[in-house]
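During the reporting period, we have paired protein sequences with C-alpha cells. One record among many follows, to show the layout:
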Amino acid sequence: MKKVTVLGDGGWGTALALVLLSNGHDVTLWGRQPEKIESLRKSRENKYLKGIVLPENLKLESDPAAAVGEAEFAVLAAPSQYMRETLEKFSGFLDPEKCAVIDVAKGIENGSLKRMSEVFEDIFGSSRNYTVLSGPSHAEEVAVNVPTAVVAASRDLCAAETIQQLFMTPSFRVYTSDDITGVELGGSLKNVLAIAAGICDGMEMGDNTKAALMTRGIAEMARLGCALGGRKETFAGLSGVGDLIVTCMSRHSRNRFVGESLGKGKPLEEIRREMNGSVAEGVRTALSAYQLAEKAGIETPLINAVYEVLYCSRSPKDAVYELMTRSAKQENL
C-alpha cells in the first residue's frame, strides 16, 4: 500500500483516484474549494462522474498541507492553465525528492508556451521523480473499469516503471517511455485537432473528411513535436495516434463537443456556458500551439485553422475551404 494524493477533484482526477484505490493504495483526493470537498463528503458523487459512488475509504481534503503531508506520490490533475497556480499552493509542502510526481494534465501554458513538466521545473526545479501519464483515457470509462491503455513517460525509465506498477490493474494497462516531451505534446496537441474533428461533425461532413483530418493531424503533431524535441515514433503511440482517435471520435470528448457546437454556428461563450464548468483543454492550447508553431517555423495548417476559428472570428466554412484549396502537396508523414 502506497500513500497517494491526487491534486484535482475533477472527473479525471477522481477516476484515477478510483484506479489507485482499486489497487489497494491509501488515496486522498484534494480540491481547492472547501465547500466542494464538503459536498463530495456528503454526496459521495462527483458531478463529472454521475452515478459513480465514491468509496468511503477515499479521503477528501482541501487543505494543501494535510493533503500531501505523508504522501509518497502526488498526481497532478488540475487543468493545465491552472497548473502553475496549483503547484504554487503546494510549493511549501511538496518535496519532489521524497514524493514522486505524476502529471496527468494535457495542455501547454498560455503566455510562457511551456509544457507541464517545464511549469513544474519553474517552481520545484528538475526532478528525476517526475513522470507524465497520458493516452486514450476518458474519465467516464476509466471510472467504471473499461479496459484502457496509457503510457508513463519519464527521463528516468526506473521512475516510469515505478508509476507503471503503481497504476497497473486488470483494466488499466500502463506502458513506459523515456520521451517525456513527445508524450506531453501528443496529449496536448490532439485536443486542438479534436476541436477540428468536432467542427466536421457539426457541419455534417462525412467519414472521409474526419479520416483525412485525423491522418493529416497526426502528421502535424509529429512535425511540430519533433521540432520541439519529441521523437517521431511517440506520435504513432498511445499519446499520439491513440489519444487522437479517442478524442476525435468519442461522445465523452469535451474538445470534440466544442468543435461540434462551433460547426453548428454557436459562439464560443455560449458553448462554455453549456459546459457548466467542464474544461476543454484544446481551446486554450490552440493559442499556445499556434504560437509555438510560429516560433519554431513549422507548418501546421489544421492547428492554424482551429486557432483562427476560436480567436480570429473565422467561420468554420471559410476555414475548411482554405484548407481544401491550399497548393498541391506531396504526402509527407
Q: What stands out?
A: The chain is about 50% helix and 10% strand. The chain has two domains: 3-178, 181-324. The longest strand covers residues 148-153.
